[in-house]
Every structure is written in C-alpha cells, then in structure tokens.
C-alpha cells in the first residue's frame, strides 16, 4: 500500500514538473500595458501581471527567480500585443521601455502649431523648441544650408514618441521623416525639363504655399502651376497665407486679413515682395511637395475659391474678376443678408 502511495505521489510530482516546464514555453496572447514604477517590488509587478495577462503571479515569480531576473526588472511602460511565453514576457520587462505618446500633425501645420501640440502632449517645452527653431543647421543636410528656421522641415504625420524624449530627439525624428518624404517627392521632379531653375529649398517654400492654399490633392499641381507661371512673368505671388504667416510672426493674427495687412511692408507678404518668401510658411505634406516638384502644365495666372473646398482657375485678370464677383462678393453679400 505504501509503495502505491509513493508511486502516486511521484507521478503527481513528475506531472506537475512537466506541466510547469510546459507552461514556461507555452505561448499565450498578451494584449495589455504593463507599467513598472521606479522601485516597485517584484511581488507588486507579479500581481499586475496576473491581473492583466493570462500568466499567474506564481508562474511569473518562479520564472524571474529561475532566470535571475528579479533584480533586472526595469521601470518603464511596456505595451504588449502579440503571443508570448512567460520567459520572453519576463525578459521583455528588463528592457526599460518608455511610454509611447501618439501625436498627429496635419499637413500645413506651421512650427508654432506643432510646438504647441507637443507641449500640450507633455513632450517638452515650447521655449526649448523655439531655440532649435532658429538653429536649423544643427538638423538639416547641406542642401538646405541657407535655411533660416526649421519651418517646412518638420514633416506632418502621426508619430509615436517616447514619453521621455528630449525636444532635440523629437525634432530629429520629424526631420528624418521629412528627408525620406522629400526624397520620394523629388523622384517626380520635372522642373529642369520645363526650364525652371529652383533650389530644393525654394521648391520647399513653394510647396508650403501650395499646402496652405488647398487641401484637395488633385488641385495641388494646378495651384503650383499658377505660382510658377507668375514667377516666370515676374508677377507677385499674392498668396494670402503669406500675410497670415507674417501676422503670426508679429503676434497679431486674429483670424482676419484686413486691407492694411495686404499693403503692409513685410518680407513674408507676397503682395508686397516679389518672388518667394524668406522661408516656408508651413510644413507641407508629400502631395504638396510632389506638386511643387512637378506642377501641371497650364497658362493659369489666377485662382479663387468656389466656397465648396475647391478653386476656379483663370488665365486672364478679366475672367478672374468675374469669378471673384460671382463667388466672393455676391456670395458673401448674400450670406451677410441672411444673417440679418
């Protein structure tokens, strides 16, 4: 009888060991975030593991002690979304991963809007970003050595930034994405074939104007063609968004453009200066850069909003005035009367 009991106990022990070792290598779906705080105990971490994953606290404690990981677990913010066995899961918690913060920047955001959003997302201070804003050469390749600011070089996209990222690291990440997208856009370049001589920085400036004038991708090459046609004829670009940017720089933009603003003597006001502004006025996306590198072939010199998100293009000032009267003067007069 004793022999039977001993055999039974032995079998149970062997089976338990086999089950335990099987558990070490059995992969399970883990979808959660584990946050280890500085100085947090192993037992506290084990409780969190049991609450958020398919692994028990006992299995976790056994694993980290067996692998001598209990003193190697590091504070961090760990995001899991895959299949893991307990060994791989435990080893991951020794990496000291930082929390990731998702931030989206729409096409056409200027640097000041980008810095505001970063600060509101607890990713650095605007005043620090502004210091880097005026020292672009610390981040840019040689072909942009004439750049005066970082405007235009922070590519608009959705990013995942580490919560402990420095302002410099974030700028480097965004400039790195700009380099990739600018290079892709340049592959479509057709300016030389059309007898247009512009530097990469000048193309970027023009792309920023295109981005601010329309969000309709199909219109971008036409908008770009208008600007190139006006440059070729020595006409002023007369781009309203440049007035807005000038007012932003002076800290007095309130959402409106007045007659006196159109006439103001400012280096960014393309109603006053000839040619392109000193820097880009926003951070253009890929499609605007592509349009600037290869504009449509047209004779258009003017465009005006149709108040439905698109534009009407014309070759003559006479036709342009007709569109302005119909789609701006009369349209807004009717809107004003309805409000009264």
TrEMBL record:
Q: Which InterPro entries match?
A: MLTG-like (IPR003770)
Q: Does the keyword Hydrolase apply?
A: no
Which GO BP terms sit in this record?
cell wall organization; peptidoglycan biosynthetic process
**Record's GO cellular component terms:** plasma membrane
- Keyword line: Cell membrane, Cell wall biogenesis/degradation, Lyase, Membrane, Transmembrane, Transmembrane helix
First-tier enzyme category under EC: lyase
The UniProt GO MF terms for this protein read: lytic endotransglycosylase activity
Instruction: Name the domain of life this protein comes from.
Output: Bacteria
* Entry EC number(s): 4.2.2.29
| Family the UniProt entry places it in | Belongs to the transglycosylase MltG family.
Q: What is this protein called?
A: Endolytic murein transglycosylase
Organism (species):
Thermotomaculum hydrothermale
**Gene name of the record:** mltG
């Amino acid at each position: 009888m004793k022999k039977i009991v001993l055999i039974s106990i032995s079998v149970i022990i062997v089976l338990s060991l086999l089950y335990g070792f099987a558990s070490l290598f059995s992969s399970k779906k883990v979808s959660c975030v584990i946050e280890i705080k500085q100085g947090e105990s192993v037992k506290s971490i084990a409780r969190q593991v049991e609450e958020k994953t398919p692994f028990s606290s006992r299995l976790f404690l056994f694993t980290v002690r067996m692998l001598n990981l209990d003193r190697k677990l590091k504070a961090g913010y760990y995001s899991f979304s895959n299949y893991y066995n307990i060994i791989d899961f435990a080893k991951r918690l020794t990496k000291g991963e930082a929390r990731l913060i998702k931030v989206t920047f729409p096409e056409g955001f200027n640097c000041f809007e980008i810095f505001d959003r970063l600060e509101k997302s607890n990713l650095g201070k605007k005043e620090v970003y502004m210091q880097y804003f005026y020292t672009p050469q610390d981040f840019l390749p040689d072909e942009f050595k004439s750049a005066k600011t970082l405007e235009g070089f922070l590519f608009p996209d959705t990013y995942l930034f580490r919560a402990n990222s420095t302002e410099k690291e974030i700028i480097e990440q965004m400039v790195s994405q700009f380099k990739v997208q600018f290079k892709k856009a340049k592959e479509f370049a057709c300016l030389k074939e059309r007898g247009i001589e512009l530097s990469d920085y000048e193309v970027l400036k023009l792309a920023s104007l295109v981005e601010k004038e329309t969000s309709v991708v199909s219109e971008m090459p036409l908008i770009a063609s208008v600007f190139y046609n006006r440059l070729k004829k020595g006409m002023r670009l007369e781009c309203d968004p440049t007035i807005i940017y000038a007012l932003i720089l002076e800290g007095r933009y309130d959402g409106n453009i007045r007659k006196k603003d159109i006439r103001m003597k400012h280096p960014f006001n393309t109603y006053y200066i000839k040619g392109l502004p000193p820097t880009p006025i926003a951070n253009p996306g890929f499609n605007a850069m592509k349009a600037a590198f290869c504009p449509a072939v047209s004779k258009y010199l003017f465009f005006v909003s149709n108040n439905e998100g698109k534009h009407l293009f014309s070759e003559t000032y006479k036709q342009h005035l007709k569109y302005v009267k119909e789609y701006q003067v009369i349209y807004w007069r009717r809107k004003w009367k309805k409000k009264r």
